[in-house]
Amino acid sequence: MNNKTPLNGPCFESTGNPKKLVFLLHGYGDNAVNFFPLATHLYDPELNINFYAPNAPSFIPQYPIGRQWFDLYPNGINFTEAGPTEKEILKQDCLSSLNLIKDYINNLCIKHKLTLKDCFIIGFSQGAMMAFEFGKYVNNALAGCVLLSGRILPSEDHEKRYFIETPVLIVHGDQDTVLEPKYFEEACEILKNHDFLFDSYLMKNEGHTISPDTLKLTKNFIKKHMT
Question: CA-CA distances (angstroms) from residue 186 to 20, 154, 194, 198, 214?
Answer without folding.
Answer: 30, 10, 13, 14, 20
